[in-house]
Amino acid sequence: MYHLILAKLKKIILFTFCFLSLKLAAQEITMEYTLEYINSKLGSCCTIDISRGILSAEYRELGEVVREDNVSISDLDLNSIHFDSENRMVVINCKGAPASKCVSREIPAYGKRGIYRPYSRISWQVNLNEKSVQGLERAFAHMIKLVLNPKYSSSEPFE
Question: What digits encode the pLDDT tens for the residues 67-93?
């Protein structure tokens, strides 16, 4: 009798352990994690953030902000995310690009007023291997989906 109870207890413990392992392995990837992942891949040259559906990207040289791009996530073409191997850039086009210019670019280096220019894409220069580039593309797609669809969730790792 004692052996039967012990065998059932082992099965319960094993089932619980397996269930918890699957649950932990399949955790949703949050926006916070996604932004941390993207920023880690972009390195010190650029940081991104999302606020109220607006993607902001600050580009730096020698610690100084040299450019800031802002775009509404809803204006980006999810299917256009790609890596431009010639320029080593991850690119996301505006919906309707090149005619549509949804990215507002500010270049503050030109005095108090700066220069504002509209663009039909947002891009980030990267020096990554193929696996990391693909992970970055997946992370950007995940970020856009999280903003556009509040019910969207995924546990699929970027790399």
Answer: 999 999 999 999 999 999 999 999 999
